Every structure is written in C-alpha cells, then in structure tokens.
Amino acid sequence: MMETNLKVMSQSQLAKAVLNESGQNVNLCYQCRKCAAGCPISYAMDYKPAQIIHAIRLGLDDLVYKSKTMWLCASCETCTTRCPQEVDIAKVMDAVKITAVKQGIKPTIPQVASFYRAALSNIKMFGRMYEMGMIVGLKMRTFELFKDVGLGMKLFTKGKLKVIPSFTGALRTWKIFNRVKSIENRESKI
Ligand code: SF4
Ligand code: SF4
Fold first, then answer.
1. According to the model, what pLDDT value does residue 108 have?
2. What is the model's pLDDT at position 136?
3. Which site among 4, 164, 165, 182 is 20 to 30 Å from 15 CA-CA?
4. Is 36 in the pocket of ligand 2 (CB under 6 A)?
5. CA–CA distance, 129 with 112 (Å, rounded to integer)
6. Residue 40 Cα, ligand 2 centroid: separation in angstroms?
7. What are phi and psi of 135, to 5 degrees?
8. Furthest CA-CA distance within the chain
9. Residue 49 Cβ < 6 Å to ligand 2
10. Does ligand 1 have an atom closer than 6 angstroms to the CB of 87?
C-alpha cells in the first residue's frame, strides 16, 4: 500500500492527468526511443515523442504544453506498436491535448484544434462526416475563408464533395454521443 502511494506521489501533475485521461503510465518508459525512430511526423516535431514522454515524467508541464508535438501527431500509432513497454504513446498525445484544453491552455497549432472541433461538431450534427459542412465549419473557425478554394473546386467538380448531407446511421451516432454525455455527467458528480 505504502509502495503504491509512493509511486503515485512521485508522479508529476501532468503524468497523473495523463494516467487519469488515458490509463497510460509514462513512468514505464525507459527511453529506448523506438517510438521516435518510427514516427513518420517526427521530422516536423520540436520534441520527439520519447522526449515528450520524458518531459511529462520530469514534470516539465510547461515545456510539454508549449510543444507542437502533440498537435502534429497524426495518431497513426506506429510508436504505440513499437514500444517495448507497451506505452500507448498515441493515447498519451491525446491525453495531453485533452488536459491542455481542459485547463484553457491555448493550442500551439490552433488550426489543428479547430479541425478537431469542426469535425466533431459535424459528425454530431449529421451522424457522419459531411465534408462540405466540415470545410465550411473549419473555414469559419480559422477565418481562412478563401484558402484552398481552388482545391475545393477541384474536389467539387470531381464529385468528391456532396452538396446534400446523408443522414444514414445518424440515429446510432446520436445515441453514442448521448451515452458519452451521460457518462461524463455521471463522472463529474463523483
Ligand atoms: S518506445 Fe516506449 S519505452 Fe521506448 S522511448 Fe518510446 S515510450 Fe519510452
Ligand atoms: S501516433 Fe503520433 S507520435 Fe506516434 S508515430 Fe504516429 S504521429 Fe508519431
């Protein structure tokens, strides 16, 4: 019992938040860097996935929140499959983003956060991804109304962007959203 308490106490605030959010214990990491070696996006990251994991362990919350790494992460899970300690690094990246948003910390790449919000509210509304609606939602959030107009037109003329949304399976999706909402409400009362 005492040993368990010591383990919890030795965790940084962010490591605890990551554990609560994702069930992932970053203290299992022994810095082999296999995750960083396999990450297809690491070339663009300011800190490699292994460095982010280490920074979380060290309690360098500020460094982690100011990093672009988790916002660039494509959730491809290459790192997760390579980790010999079975740390799900992709889940850790998500947990850091969720924790940052919950704490009102501004995303280092706001366009990515806007994309997530636009995609989620689109699926919530139509029950599945309605690309045209998602693009309009994203443009309104980022104020980049005329960026990529040429590309949009190309997709439209090739029939890749539907004007009328489909509501097939929407009922099932709405039920999922309602269930998640009630679970969140229940947990917030505990
Ligand atoms: S692969 Fe796993 S153990 Fe190795 S550095 Fe990455 S998180 Fe740590
Ligand atoms: S899930 Fe993210 S951090 Fe992991 S390999 Fe893919 S892009 Fe890199």
1. 94
2. 78
3. 182
4. no
5. 17
6. 7
7. -65, -45
8. 66
9. yes
10. yes
CA distance 47 to 65: 11
Q: Which ligand is nearest to the CA of 85?
A: 1
Ligand 1 centroid distance, CA of 48 (Å): 11
Question: Taking a C-beta distance cutoff of 8 angstroms, is the pair 73, 93 a contact?
Answer: yes
Q: pLDDT band for position 128 (50/70/90)?
A: confident
Angle 111-116-119 from CA coordinates, rounded to 5°: 115
The answer to whether 133 touches 126, Cβ cutoff 8 Å, is yes
Q: Which two tokens stand for residue 17?
A: 């938040």
Q: Is 33 in the pocket of ligand 1 (CB under 6 A)?
A: yes
Helix segments in the chain, DSSP class H: 2-9, 13-22, 34-38, 49-58, 61-66, 69-72, 78-82, 89-102, 110-126, 131-142, 149-157, 170-189
Residues counted in the chain: 190
CA–CA separation, 71 and 41 (whole Å): 11
Q: Which residue matches tokens 């491809």? A: 76
3-class secondary structure, 77:
coil
Banded pLDDT at 17 (limits 50, 70, 90): very high
